[in-house]
Amino acid sequence: MPVLRDYYISHQWLRELKRRGVRTMVGVYFRVPDREPVVVGHYNSAPRPMSAARAVRVIMDQEDARGFQIVVPRKIAPRALHKIRHVSQVVGWRYFPDSHGRRPCGCPMCQPRGEIRSRRLREAYEASFGGG
């Protein structure tokens, strides 16, 4: 994500990434040229190719930018790294934006084996169909 004035939007994916069991994450900040080809989109829609500068504008123009992401489809060279720093570990959302207070989907696609609490969620999901 680009570094925006809104810290929450810039670091919104932190809790979703931590859901995999990682305890502490850091921010790795790097620069890409404005004309760099990237893809941008909401996590549940098809990404669109465009320049890095235009992708940042797309996100900034959203009324609610939660769930948006920018992907740089190449390896980031070490010389492009700007800084690595500690970030707040409680920023962001899990599962999807506005999921707070809603039970996560328990289907095997959304809750693959080995994820934290996935077995319980899958069992509850299967029981809801009378199979458990």
Textual characterization of the structure:
This protein is α+β, with helices and mostly antiparallel strands. It has two domains: 7-91, no CATH class; 102-132, no CATH class. The protein is 21% helix and 19% strand. It has a three-stranded antiparallel sheet, with helices on one face. A two-stranded antiparallel ribbon has the order 1-5. Strand 2 (37-42) and strand 3 (48-51) form a beta hairpin. The chain is elongated and about 55 Å long. The mean pLDDT is 83.
Quick rundown:
With 132 residues, the protein is α+β, with helices and mostly antiparallel strands. Helix content is 21%, strand content 19%.
- Give the SSE string: HHEEEHEEH
Sheet having the most strands? 3 strands, antiparallel
In one word, what is the shape?
elongated
Compute the separation of the termini in Å.
Answer: 41 Å
Detail the poorly predicted runs: none
Helix content: 10-25%
- Overall tally of structural domains: 2
Strand content: 15-25%
According to DSSP, the number of beta strands is 5
Strand order of the largest sheet: 3-2-4
Total count of helical runs of at least 4 residues: 4
Cα-based radius of gyration, to the nearest Å: 17 Å
* Whole-number mean pLDDT: 83
> What class would the helix/strand composition place it in?
alpha+beta
